[in-house]
Design goal:
- This protein has two helices and twelve strands; from the N terminus they run ααββββββββββββ.
- By secondary structure, the protein is of the alpha+beta class.
- Strands 1-4-7-8-9 form a five-stranded antiparallel sheet, with helices on one face. It has a three-stranded antiparallel sheet with strand order 10-11-12. The protein has a two-stranded antiparallel sheet with strand order 2-3.
- The chain is elongated and about 105 Å long.
- The model is unreliable at 213-227 and 238-256 (pLDDT under 50).
């Protein structure tokens, strides 16, 4: 009996044993695939969120860089706003929850300025001549606004932030991922401050679609957005009065 049982054991697994083994392998396989899919979806979602955040940051930084070197800034409802050719200020306004939303800002750059000599500065007993540049004259105007893919103003549903210059040298997209789901995804406004005329608040909402399922049904996609709001940029050279103390040699009077 003992020898016969040993021979039976060497003959292989029983049907019940094989069924259990196959079932366990199937469970392990399914769990492994589920973990892999979940990790892949998480990576895609993260990438979408990072891309949205980077795009919004690129737009606000470009506006900030130009605003800090401006001699004037104007919103569509203000004097001094220069509309791109073929459009009026009304093309850059919309409404959201009953309030006006301005989707453009006009930034006037300083002129090249003309050097003024004859100014001196005394430091440590030494008098040195300095050259002062009058930068109060206005130069070209830059307009950042919400648009479609061709640069046509679309204040309520455009997915682009466009840059245009009054001299015709610039007409290009800054980002093309504006969240089109809300009329206030691009918004410029004056902050409540004592020097509001020299400041502007910028809001950019960028969004990317990211698949959250294995099929291609648009309904199963997620729209991931980032909002950079409350970012306030200030004109650095807003003063038109020269400082009481001249700059040191080699510097210019910003704002004069």
């Amino acid at each position: 009996m003992t020898r016969r049982r040993a021979q039976q054991r060497q003959g292989g697994f029983t049907l019940a044993e094989a069924s259990i083994a196959i079932g366990l392998m199937g469970v392990i396989f399914i769990v492994t695939i589920a973990v892999f899919i979940t990790m892949s979806q998480g990576a895609i979602r993260t990438q979408a969120q990072v891309s949205a955040s980077m795009d919004a940051s690129v737009a606000t930084q470009a506006i900030n860089a130009d605003a800090r070197e401006a001699v004037a800034m104007a919103l569509p409802n203000e004097t001094g706003f220069v509309s791109p050719t073929g459009y009026s200020a009304a093309n850059f306004e919309t409404t959201y929850s009953g309030a006006n939303v301005y989707t453009a800002v006009c930034i006037t750059k300083p002129g090249t300025g003309s050097p003024s000599t004859g100014t001196t500065i005394t430091f440590a007993g030494c008098t040195n001549p300095v050259t002062v540049y009058n930068r109060s004259a206005t130069g070209i105007s830059l307009v950042y606004y919400r648009s479609d893919a061709n640069g046509v103003p679309d204040a309520s549903a455009g997915s682009y932030v466009w840059e245009w210059s009054s001299d015709g040298s610039i007409s290009k997209a800054i980002i093309k991922s504006v969240s089109a789901s809300a009329p206030n995804s691009v918004q410029f406004e004056r902050p409540a401050s004592s020097i509001a005329s020299t400041e502007v608040s910028v809001k950019i909402v960028s969004g990317y679609y990211s698949p959250i399922n294995t099929d291609t049904n648009e309904a199963t996609n997620g729209h991931y957005t980032t909002t950079l709001t409350g970012t306030c940029v200030r004109m650095r050279d807003y003063s038109t009065t020269p400082p009481s103390t001249p700059p040191v040699t080699g510097e210019a009077w910003a704002g004069y």
